[in-house]
């Protein structure tokens, strides 16, 4: 029996526009100037940075010039560069809790201290930010458009409070805008960066939109940080492959990216509906289930009252042919989210989603699982 894997953050790879992308790559190779075949600038090709600058202003309200953009080899490198430039022994970062375990690992590897702030259904709880009497953090890290993993969207009042805090403590804000294009019940939320470009470091990636295999992301930086990040990028890997950058620039400039997003959003909306509907119907009357973060992204969080997702229970689910991901793995302060699991749906068909929920139920319905007995 094959495993149905509810991994989050993976787009439907069967819908990757191979033919169009192939034509872009071919054209990039044929039309590229000679400079694209030599050592390039660490900040990336100007052609791509100009296109990304216009695209971000049009779709996300990001205020930046091409000179403020550093092209990276995916968002992971962007995060690593942030840690390299701004963190180290004796420094600290305020970070929302829970948040991706990989991000915690990248930041802690510098020797810096992480200062967690809880999240609720609206994202980072700004009233819990450290007092100004404490040592100022290097930055506050958050995912304001679609908090990972719980799915809150930071309201304007909290955004303004956060910007005021950053200015008073003289720290930066790191905005990870990892999948803001996929919002289903409303227009995309404008970026935090558009409210305070001098304070916000904005991270974006094309991995979760198009394909993780492309390894193309970017940083939008306050002007005073650009030179430091150019140097950090240079000593990291010199530059991101130039021909890939040129192909992506043409792909965006000719409208293919936005057409692709519009097309797959309809697909993901159906899959989201299939997942939420299957959970509600399958578990109807058996347990108190809450669905969080369904308005955006490529995953939801399902909270099951009184069911702790222990390693033993996760192993039983694996044996039953379904792989889910506990929110608790991403918690800095443990014990608050043991009843929640992350269910990604981007790369699963509706049939597999329904079958996966059935397998989930088959395990939770035995041994008293749904009545809250310990597993």
TrEMBL record:
Which Gene3D superfamilies would you find in this protein's record? Answer: Type I PLP-dependent aspartate aminotransferase-like (Major domain) (3.40.640.10)
Mind telling me what this protein is named?
Answer: Transcriptional regulator, GntR family
Identify a single GO molecular function assigned to this protein: pyridoxal phosphate binding
- CDD domains, alphabetized: AAT_like
**Boundaries of each Aminotransferase class I/classII large domain copy?**
23-307
Q: Which organism is it from?
A: Brevibacillus centrosporus
Q: Which Pfam family name is an example for this entry?
A: Aminotran_1_2
Note the InterPro entries from the entry. Aminotransferase_I/II_large, HTH_trans_reg/aminotransferase, PyrdxlP-dep_Trfase, PyrdxlP-dep_Trfase_major
Report which residue ranges the record marks as coiled coil. Answer: none
